[in-house]
Amino acid sequence: MASLQGVSRLFIAGIVAALLVWSSSSLAQPFFVGPQKCTECHRSEQVVWEKTKHATSFRDVHRKPEVKDIIAAAGGDANMRRNDVCTACHFTMTKADAAARPNATVGPSCESCHGAASDWIALHNDYGGPTAKRETETAAHKAERLRKASAGGMIWPSQHFDVANNCLSCHGLSRPGIAPETIAKMIDAGHPPGSAFELVRYSQGSVRHRFYPPNVNDNAEMSPAEIARLFVTGHAAALVQVTAASGKSANPKYGETLKKIDTDARAALDAVKGQVPEAAALLAQPTEANARKFVDAVAGKDLAGALGSRLPAKASYK
Fold first, then answer.
1. Contact 307, 298 (CB under 8 A)
2. CA dist 242 → 198, 214, 272 (Å)
3. What global pTM score does this model have?
C-alpha cells in the first residue's frame, strides 16, 4: 500500500509539474524575435527597410541633445535603450526566448508593424512540411496557415486598419501603457507632440515594401482607388485613437496635435459618407467597432473622386 501511495504521489506531482509548465508557457507574452528572422526570406523588404529612418535612427537617436531632458521627464532608466517609455517606440526589443531579457537590437522594424512574432513566425513559414515551398503549397493549407498566423498575433499587410493602429500608437503618442501625464512632461521637455501622421503619406514613400507574386522583385505602387481606401482607413483609425486620447492630458501642444488629427479625419470621412453610409455612424460614435464596419464597407470602392485634392500628393510622401 505504501508503495502504491508513493507511486500515486509521484504521479500527481508529475501532473502538477506538467500543468505548471503548460500554464507558464500559455500565459507567456509574445515577444519580438528581431528582423533577421524575417529577412531570411524577405530580402527585398530588408533592402527597403535599411534605408528608412526606422532603421537608421537607431544609430544616433540617443545622442540628440534634448534626449537627456526628455528621459528625465519620462522617468525610469537614464539610458534610452533601457528606458521602457523610450523603447516602446524607438527600438525593437528582441529576445532569444521567452525567459531572456529584452535587448534593444535595432530601431522600429518588421514586428513594430506586423506584431511580435514569437507565436506566429513558425506558422507563417510552414508551407506544408519541412520540404514544402511557397510554390507548392496547397490552397487549403495556405488558408489554414494564414488563419493560424493571424490567431498567433500576426498583422498581415492587407490588414490596413490594424497596421494603422500600430503606426498611430507611436506617431500619435497614444502608446498603451504610457500615462498621459508622462507624455505631457516629455513634450514640455522637448519631445515632439506627435506627428501629422497620415497613413498614405507615411506608408507609400520610403517605407513602401509591396513585393507580391508574380512580380516579387517589383515594389508595386498602389492604384488611385487603393490609395483612396488606404487614406480613409488611416483616418478611421486616427479618429478612434484621438477620441480615446482626448481629455487625458492638459498639455496645450498635445491638445493642438489631437485637434488637427480629429479635424483631418472628420473631413476625410465626411467626404465619402455619400458612398459609404457607415462613415456617418463612425463620425457620430468613433468606436473601433464602427471603424471596422466602415473599413469593411470601403472594400472594393473607388473613393478617389470623392476625396479629390484631400489625397496627399506623391511629392509629399515621407
1. no
2. 13, 39, 20
3. 0.88
